[in-house]
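Dear colleague,

Following up on yesterday's call, I've attached the two folding results inline so they're easy to grep. Please treat them as preliminary; we haven't cross-checked anything against experimental data yet. The first protein's sequence and structure tokens come first.
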Amino acid sequence: MSMRKLSSLAATVLASAVFVMSGSTLAQDAKSWPSNTISIVSGFPGGAATDLYARKLGAELNKEFGVPIISDNRPGAGGNIASSLVAQAKPDGYTFLLGTAGTHAINPALYSKLQFDVVKDFSRIALLGTLPNILLINPEKHPEIKTCQDLIAAARKAPGKLNYASTGNGASGHLAGAQFAAASKTSYVHIPYKGQGPAMTALLSGEVDFFFNQSSPSLGAIQSGKVRALAVTSAQRVTVLPDVPTAAEACNLPGFQSTTWYGLFGPADLPADIQNRMSKAVLKAIHTDSFEQWLVSQAIQPIKDGSPEAFRRTQLADMKTWAQIVKDSGAHVD
């Protein structure tokens, strides 16, 4: 046998041995899991709704596993920085991602190139809840606009004159605005900001006319009277805001919906035992009465079936839905 063939054979044997050893190490790690700190990564700033959820969930999982659970915020690129980090993480059960419909259903259609596959490079742990956007307006800037119908009437009188904020190009609030414009046959100027904080500041300062913001971070401003909530984009009213009608009701747009979700992901190739244990622990935590009450207080709708299988079906279906909405809106990020 030639030296070249011997070298090739040796390399193959070595690679196989490394693969077996790696698989064996993961199997051993799975038996002792968890023994170290678990990180729940999210792609948005500290204090964002995802951070609050990660901290709340982490506190419950700490009771279950007895190890520290930390919220690790890695904002940037619409959540893609955090997603890329988790996609490339060692699948040992110590790094998870609190992803969203934005990161794992909208971004594949929005970004021309991603460094990861939102389906193949992740394992699904649990679907964590759904949440609508809320149509907000500054009552000081627009005291005459008291209802969604008033907003539509104002837009029809002055096409393209009103503007609205979003947390970024292709974010759920941007796309909700595009859906709203199309459904109501009106036109608006979209102004993207870098996150919820700057967008809300723009609304409060009168820099923009309205804002489709996620429900959870909107509650304080609504309850203080700083903003007026004209409609929620879910099929039903939000329990914590019973007087705020749905867009279908308030805007006379039958069937109008624009909701998103949170979900917990792990890296691909996560050992089945770790995935199953983590999934059971998460589902147990989020279905307690106290946790569901907290979700409702944050305007997050609890999930009846958050299993990995149901989560996968939801993600795949939403990828198709949002791809069409992104296409219709013309949103695109390089």
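Below is the second protein, in the same order (sequence, then structure):
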Amino acid sequence: LEDPTCVFEPFYYDRLVVITPNAEAYREYEKTGFPIERFYEEKWIIREEGSGTRKETERYLREHGVDLRRMNVVATISNQETIKKSVSTAMGIAMISSAAVEDYVASGQLLRFPLAEGDIYRKLYMVWSKSNKPGKAARLFIQFVRELYAYL
């Protein structure tokens, strides 16, 4: 979001991936990435309006000639955990943060794929008011985050 009264400091680039149920039909994409041509053939679970993940997904799709209105969207969900559970039960597939699905991928409940046409990222930001300077604890946290992600 844009707000002239706030400071927005990006600190991390979060990679978005396609997640699918752990099914044989999807394993062929482990080497090639998930092809954009398949987008119209799948049932999709998408993030809610206003979500950073949704905004970046929509931007990426537009840039690659995919019409979101033609996709078979079966659900719009605001909670990442609910999205992961829904995909693991074969309700549909989704685009989500790669880091957010580590647990389900490690346990074998989901498959995770980059996009064959190139990576997609969203920026994560620290945000604070310009007029209300961060207190000591907040300043320490901001410094911690800066140092933690400086090398990633």
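For the second protein, one point worth flagging: The longest helix spans residues 136-149.

Best wishes,
A.L.
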